[in-house]
Amino acid sequence: MKALVWHGKEDIRCDTVTDPEIQDPRDAIIKVTSCAICGSDLHLFHNFIPGMLPGDIMGHETMGEVVEVGSGVDGKLKKGDRIVVPFTIICGECDQCKRGNFSVCETTNRKRQLGDKVFGHTTAGLFGYTHLTGGYPGGQAEYLRVPFADATHIKVPDGIPDEQLLFLSDIFPTGWQAAVHCDIEPTDTVAIWGCGPVGQMTIRSAILLGANQVIAIDCIPERLSMAEAGGATTINFETESVLERLDHLTDGRGPEKCIDATGMESHVMASQPDTLLDRAKQMVMLESDRPHVLREMIYVCRPGGIISVAGVYSGFSDKIPMGAFMNKGLTMRTGQTHVNRWTDDLLRRIEQGEIDPSFVITHTVPLERGPEMYQVFRDKRDSCVKVVLKP
Ligand SMILES: NC(=O)c1ccc[n+]([C@@H]2O[C@H](COP(=O)([O-])OP(=O)(O)OC[C@H]3O[C@@H](n4cnc5c(N)ncnc54)[C@H](O)[C@@H]3O)[C@@H](O)[C@H]2O)c1
Ligand SMILES: [Zn+2]
Ligand SMILES: [Zn+2]
User: Fold this and answer.
1) Closest residue by CA, ligand 1 atom 11
2) Cα separations (Å) of 198 from 44, 117, 210, 310?
3) Is 150 in the same domain as 33?
4) Is residue 139 located within the same domain as residue 216?
5) H/E element holding 33?
6) 3-state SS string over 129-140?
7) CA-CA distance, 338 to 344, in Å (whole number)?
8) Could you tell me if 166 and 176 lie in one domain?
9) Residue 36 contacts residue 167 (beta carbons within 8 Å)
10) How many domains are there within the chain?
11) Whole-model pTM over 0.90
12) What is the residue range of 91's domain?
């Protein structure tokens, strides 16, 4: 089959690889009908997340049709079923899965000793996302083996196009969880850093959850326009002062809730000298992340407020203003998304027409054009916000 394969830093190719097979009774194989490129894939593209090996198949936003099931799938799935695959592989049985903490499932990371060593405790296995989380082949491919498939799936009805359902795999529940983590009250201002696909889903979620005011921050005009169309007031951090505008928009109090939808690769620019220092430290391996957004959020957040971090961080972040964080009495919530905790509700909202997540798609291309689209998405060329690939 054809698949997008990681060969090294900024080197992803569409290769012919061996078709996946059932390896365990709980496996299923799907024929992929649609898959997408995520901002998290860019961290791998740039080799900022350790634990990728040449030959790894990329991709964790995937849906398709079940073509084979193992003997242990227990009637939960059958040939012909249409499923969206959550990016978190879950067993459905361990203590964390029972609590709904699916992204920290205790069973599914088949390289758990690596997770234990690096993070203190293992987290869930993830598709197409480093050997720290199991090194499972991803879904930017013609076929995907879904381990623990009896639990790891979202069954979706016929009659709704892939484009509306695909993002149940990741970015829609991710934006939703980031907003839910804020305990939004009707008087709240929610400020969101990053208007990429995750930021866009977060904006819509914060509005659906009843925020009084949503403010979206980025520097890419098309992404800011999309944010505005979704109901946000926008700040372009390249041409305006984030601190001054937030101050003005909140009568000097600061936003009650701040969401990081940017993560470890904050833009590097001379007007934000901390980002220059972070980049220099990254180059000599003194720091793994560029946490400008975390610093800014802690500084502007209203005392007593909540900092919700959806953006991915990989290792160590310097100069986090703990003094401000502690003295202002802030709370931080974060995590890879517990996808299946949210998807019954979100699927219902899509079916009822409350939201159509396909608004974020700007490019739909054949899988073979994937390598080129990694560059286009990374460089935000051609007004690119979200790429869907068709195998
Ligand atoms: N927690 C999870 O489970 C989960 C799931 C999916 C994605 N993610 C993470 O979410 C983040 C965003 O993903 P995406 O797909 O939207 O990626 P993306 O790279 O398209 O979006 C990031 C956006 O942040 C903007 N940005 C950069 N520096 C900024 C700054 N200083 N202030 C404000 N905005 C800034 C960029 O211009 C860009 O539009 C990534 O870190 C990704 O890994 C997390
Ligand atoms: Zn993702
Ligand atoms: Zn589990």
Assistant:
1) 311
2) 17, 29, 19, 8
3) yes
4) no
5) strand 28-36
6) CCHHHCCECCCC
7) 12
8) no
9) yes
10) 2
11) yes
12) 2-170+337-390
User: What is the rounded radius of gyration, in angstroms, for the C-alpha atoms of the chain?
Assistant: 20
Indicate whether 311 and 234 sit together in one domain. yes
- Give the domain-ending residue among 334, 350, 381: 334
- Over residues 135-184, the pLDDT tens digits come to 999 999 999 999 999 999 999 999 999 999 999 999 999 999 999 999 99
Collect the ranges in the chain with pLDDT lower than 70.
none
Q: Are residues 186 and 160 in the same domain?
A: no
Three-state secondary structure call for residue 98 = helix
Ligand 1 geometric centre to CA of 189 (Å): 20
Burial of 208 (0-12, 13-18, 19+ CB in 10 A): middle
Cβ neighbours for 34, distance < 8 A, ≥ 6 positions apart: 62, 63, 64, 162, 163, 166, 388, 389, 390
What is the Cα 287 distance to its own chain's centre?
22
Q: What is the CATH number of the domain that holds 43?
A: 3.90.180.10
* Nearest partner of 214 among 251, 181, 170, 184, judged by Cα: 184
Statement to judge: residues 122 and 207 lie in one domain: no
CATH number at residue 323: 3.40.50.720
Q: Would you state the structure tokens that stand for residue 22, as one six-digit string?
A: 């059932």
Residue 130 is encoded by which pair of tokens? 């480093």
359 and 230 in a single domain? The answer is no
Which residues line the pocket of ligand 1, CB cutoff 6 A? 38-40, 42-43, 170-171, 174, 193-199, 217-220, 223, 237, 261-263, 266-267, 292-293, 310-312, 336-337
Residue ranges of the alpha helices (H) in the chain?
A: 39-45, 95-98, 112-119, 162-165, 171-180, 197-208, 221-229, 242-249, 273-283, 292-300, 322-327, 339-351, 370-379
Residues 111 and 18 in one domain: yes
Q: List, for residues 177-221, the tens digit of each pLDDT value.
A: 999 999 999 999 999 999 999 999 999 999 999 999 999 999 999
